[in-house]
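[Help] Beginner question about ligand-bound structures

Sorry if this is basic. My supervisor gave me a protein sequence and a SMILES string for flavin-adenine dinucleotide and asked me to "get the holo structure". I don't really know what that means in practice or what format the answer should be in. Inputs are pasted below exactly as I got them.
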Amino acid sequence: MITYDAIIIGFGKAGKTLAGRLANNNWNVAMIEKDPDMYGGTCINIACIPTKSLVQDGLKGVPYRDAIERKDKVVEKLREKNYKNLAEHENVTIYESEASFRSDKEVELELDGKTEVLTAEHIFINTGATSNIPPLKGDLNSDKVYTSTSLIDRKQLPRQLAIIGGGYIGLEYASMYKTFGAEVTVITPEEELLTREDREIAAEVQKVMEEKGIHIIFGAKAQEITEESKDKVSLSLSNGETVSANAVLLATGRKPNVEHLGLENTSIELTENGAIKVNDHLETTVGNVWALGDVKGGMQFTYISLDDYRIVENYLFGDKKYSLESRKHVPNSMFIDPPLSRVGITAKEAEEKGYEIAEGKLLVASHPRAHVINDLRGLFKVVIDKKTDKILGASLFGPESPELINLVKLAMDLEAPYTYLRDQIYNHPVMSESFNALFAID
Ligand SMILES: Cc1cc2nc3c(=O)[nH]c(=O)nc-3n(C[C@H](O)[C@H](O)[C@H](O)COP(=O)(O)OP(=O)(O)OC[C@H]3O[C@@H](n4cnc5c(N)ncnc54)[C@H](O)[C@@H]3O)c2cc1C
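Answer (accepted):
No worries, everyone starts somewhere. Holo just means with the ligand present. The predicted complex, written as structure tokens, is below.
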């Protein structure tokens, strides 16, 4: 048995950041990653970075095959850099193996056919999440059925792509593959798009996606996949329709990666959603065993994983005051074309919470910058608490919204009145100056 000061399972955002911090503090750290193609974690290898590099190239008119090649290069570079950052640290040992708990404080690995056991007082679980596979009849192992990970490894653009699921990943891929020239059909069991978003914004997103040529089938579940020909499958749906496609993307959410962790050998408990149960400081039900990132449930974003790192770092080395409870507003963006970004709550949610609200609304087409960049699509909306003048939320569907939303988030965190964004001097012609008009609420 080898003893470390800390064992980190999973080379994700929180895990790698924490490994560096602990090692710099002279902790002897074991970093365990099961997949050599995943050094640096999900974000840089199979998620945020490759998908947004493809989105970007698609919008620039780069052919699909060339975009895939560039994406592979970007990923390889980042993976190597991430690996080296830790591998070259004298206090870090990297193990390439799947880790599994043998007891609360012992972790087992297979190395060159032999079992090795590591132990540490502090253990950090950062194993991420994996695609849900929906219960469809037919051959889900067909070479025409993909997850978000395998589809972006496909070298040839599918002529027809069917996407099962109308969530964030489903819609981002729909927009991206349509931009590259695929015929795209999205199948969603919901009767409307983006059910948790403001209805007017969701309707605008639907309009823009349909105008782009994306076909959306509402109120239908995919039931069976049948091989139609050498390069085609057909999907039968619960509403009686059949969709033919060269590729089917399963985009039905992601579940915490706990399956092979041997948690049954420990007192680490799971939530009813199958995530690792943690307290406000991200400690599991075993003292000094922590869970960070997607595996602990909740919002699945890289910056949440990074903020989870901040919580644990603050607990270990700081004043222990930063916790899930004190986390402020979390923005998010969906990189469709144009992007949709959101922070805080919608008008409907605010009213349900008992706020007396006012709303600000602006068509992107009415703003000068939209004309400069020749993209007039979209709608911006904000919600204000009439009593305090505080901003309760913003839904920004339009160009450059992933940058803009962070400004609103800052104002909300600082509890600034909406008039602060309304009366600000912005440079010109930029998208943020649209806040002069968007926040002009009587
Ligand atoms: C298609 C897609 C697009 C996305 N786009 C964005 C985006 O634009 N912006 C954003 O913020 N988020 C995005 N996300 C979400 C984001 O990628 C994740 O929330 C984030 O990467 C999770 O990081 P993590 O720290 O939880 O762990 P991960 O980065 O998932 O790392 C977990 C690591 O643990 C390893 N592992 C698992 N089990 C074991 C084990 N037993 N032993 C050893 N190693 C193990 C895995 O191989 C993996 O490397 C996207 C996700 C997807 C799928």
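A couple of things worth pointing out: The longest helix spans residues 64-87. Residues 9-14, 32-35, 38, 41-43, 47-48, 51-52, 98-99, 126-128, 148, 169, 254, 257, 260-261, 293-295, 300-303, 305 surround flavin-adenine dinucleotide (CB under 6 Å). Feel free to follow up in the thread.
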